[in-house]
């Protein structure tokens, strides 16, 4: 070939994208990134085609020291197992709000129990997963808000008494050619809610005040 194009790495992009997304979620959860910056980097991560593009998104993060004799892949799996053994896939909230991400799922399943508290779940990190996500909600006097990646299907099997259910989709039509990052998976919602609303918003849709409500338990950073 006559063209002298700079070499860019594509090998390993899907796996490393998952790692970058987890690091961004952790940084936001630890109040190290503002909401706007977290959203910007997350979108770039899902659209990145090369390893170099992903590396730029966490270039300013502190360098993580690798334990002796352990590769990065082994470290990530060990961290995941440790988290599961410590807390399992059930998250309990009493008199307060809880913000959850895909890091809180185990085997694509998550159970939430809340009394007098709201549950906020961000599952955009599961954009490339083709296995269904199962979310069991058991809520008494509290709202459940979920942000899903664009294109993800939703099956609502949840019983909701004295509360509303809303699924807000992105009004803009797209095709796989226009948006290669569309999700192909399904979110299955199960459980029971009493005196609480269930709100599901597709990524990219606009609802005034939704993000402020969604992230209100993380501090006023909008």
Describe it.
- The structure is a single chain.
- By secondary structure, the protein is an alpha/beta fold.
- The chain folds into two domains: 7-64, no CATH class; 87-222, no CATH class.
- Helix content is 26%, strand content 26%.
- The chain has five helices and eleven strands; from the N terminus they run ααααβββββββββββα.
- The chain has helices at 13-29, 35-47, 51-57, 72-87, 210-214, and strands spanning 90-94, 98-101, 109-115, 119-122, 133-140, 144-148, 153-156, 159-161, 165-168, 186-194, 198-202.
- Strands 1, 3, 5, 7, 8 and 10 form a six-stranded parallel β-sheet that branches. It has a five-stranded parallel β-sheet with strand order 2-4-6-11-9, with no helix packed on it.
- The N and C termini lie far apart (49 Å).
- The model is unreliable at 1-5, 65-87 and 217-222 (pLDDT under 50).
């Amino acid at each position: 070939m006559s063209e002298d194009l700079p070499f860019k790495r594509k090998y390993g992009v899907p796996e490393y994208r998952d790692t970058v997304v987890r690091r961004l979620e952790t940084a936001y959860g630890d109040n190290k990134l503002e909401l706007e910056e977290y959203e910007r980097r997350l979108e770039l991560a899902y659209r990145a085609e090369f390893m170099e593009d992903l590396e730029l998104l966490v270039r300013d993060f502190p360098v993580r020291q690798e334990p002796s004799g352990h590769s990065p892949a082994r470290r990530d799996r060990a961290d995941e197992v440790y988290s599961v053994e410590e807390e399992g896939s059930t998250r309990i909230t009493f008199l307060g709000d809880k913000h959850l991400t895909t890091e809180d799922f185990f085997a694509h399943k998550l159970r939430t129990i809340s009394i007098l508290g709201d549950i906020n779940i961000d599952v955009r990190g599961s954009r490339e997963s083709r296995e269904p996500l199962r979310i069991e909600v058991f809520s008494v006097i509290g709202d459940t808000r979920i942000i899903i990646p664009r294109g993800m299907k939703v099956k609502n099997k949840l019983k909701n008494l004295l509360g509303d259910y809303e699924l807000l989709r992105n009004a803009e039509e797209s095709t796989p050619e226009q948006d290669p990052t569309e999700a192909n998976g399904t979110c299955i919602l199960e459980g029971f809610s009493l005196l609480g609303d269930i709100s599901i918003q597709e990524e990219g849709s606009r609802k005034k005040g939704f993000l402020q409500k969604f992230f209100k338990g993380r501090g006023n950073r909008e």
